[in-house]
């Protein structure tokens, strides 16, 4: 019996089918691929391309998209700093459950603050692969897929909501950094290939 | 672009590998088996037995246990009525994601209030299988695996926290009701068998 936060009288219930058994069934290892970067840096594109490539190899993955999750689990949250932190915490907790279930969970969120990403990494230190879409701000702003930069330039986004253009790179603990090469962005499939190679090298694509 | 609750400027990002493709990979259909009943009614026992039986058949399931989730995703929540509702809402949203990922998600929570269970059913109306552990209160109290009934009888649980012995059965929409037979509880494996037969009959165990 333990006390966690505001909860008392709660017990840990052991599951009889363990993570190792699920991984054997799936012939892969559960992990979290956490894709972070500015709005317009290509996070969702990479998530889609990566899940397609993994599926082609018979691997089960699932995308937790920051915006999609705000339609369901996190629809009670806004964009204040504490709401962003809670948004990322919940996605981290759910990603951890998916990894425990044996899936390759692809989380795609701006997640600008280092401490929020690190808190998620701390939940699953051995199976958290951070992928940083290190694309130039100018390129992201040119793409502006959601029109957010335009709104920001027009002063139409509250300061609280503008952290999508703040991005903390200090103390980076990332595993993979994707950059332009000679001023050209790699194709989605090339970027997915880089992540898949990493997963393969680290043994995630077999049980 | 849409507004959901407190969130604005959010978009729905389509995933390129769809539920049907994941189901084909797993040769099963994603769904939620929601096990509800009093403390001590055998929810966790059934969840374990069911996941074992499904694993034996090569099916991928994952248990969302109400108490376990309070150690992670829901550790900010207590036992006030609104916290219980939020606890169940979040588990429902996560269960929906697991079903979308193609898994047979086994949710095991007391979930005493009809409206909370119905809200979860509404998230996934076509693939929500409610299993009610209809065991006598006297039996549950005799088992009292967490000592909660003892605490309640001793007046040591705040009224707010005592809804584990309140259980709303009105307007039951359940698919499976498990009862004692001639005053004897069915074995965990017999109960799991009943649920597996249901899943089989409804086509969940193939893609």
From TrEMBL, chains A, B:
Keywords annotated in UniProt: ATP-binding, Kinase, Nucleotide-binding, Transferase
* Enzyme Commission numbers on file: 2.7.1.25
Read off the InterPro entries from this record: APS, APS_kinase_dom, P-loop_NTPase
Q: Where are the transmembrane segments?
A: none
The terms under GO molecular function for this entry are: adenylylsulfate kinase activity; ATP binding
Cite the Pfam families for this sequence.
APS_kinase (PF01583)
Which reactions fall under this protein's catalytic activity? adenosine 5'-phosphosulfate + ATP = 3'-phosphoadenylyl sulfate + ADP + H(+)
Q: Which SUPFAM superfamilies match?
A: P-loop containing nucleoside triphosphate hydrolases (SSF52540)
Which terms does the UniProt entry file under GO BP?
hydrogen sulfide biosynthetic process; sulfate assimilation
Q: What class does this enzyme belong to in the EC scheme?
A: transferase
User: In UniProt terms, what function does this protein have?
Assistant: Catalyzes the synthesis of activated sulfate.
Q: What is this protein called?
A: Adenylyl-sulfate kinase
Q: Which organism is it from?
A: Gossypium anomalum
